[in-house]
Fold:
Amino acid sequence: MIPVAESIPEEAELLIQKIKRRKSSSMKFIMMYQESSEYVSKTLSSSSAKILSLFVGKMSFDNCVYGYSYRDISRTLSMSTKTVGRAVNEMELAGIVNIHKQKGRMVYVINPAYVWKGSFYKIQDKLGGFKQQMINENSFLKARKENAEGQD
Structure:
């Protein structure tokens, strides 16, 4: 068996150097729950999973991705805007992403029960806030899901 670090020596060496320094501002961490990762891989379409991966890479410490239009996402990932719309809708209906506009810009809030960026100690506050937001929008999401199922 070949250790992972030996199979990708250049990348592994860079990562090891960053970890040793630990002061590097280029080292960013997220927490993702194994059950959530498994759920995403088994449940979401490949387009949704790809967009979620982009969002995780771009999200801020409040678990938000700011200012990406469907067109921006489609250009970044080489997808049609229609595919992006369907995929984002799929993630919203699954409760993984909550979408709203702030000052005319799209804001995608990633459910911290799936992936989290920030202090481990603040996750409970963020989970509570996301849960309340989802409760407030639950009737809207239910209606959208029922509408989407009726169109199939």
User: Anything to note?
Assistant: The beta strands are 31-32, 64-66, 97-102, 105-110, 115-116. The longest strand covers residues 97-102. The mean pLDDT is 78.
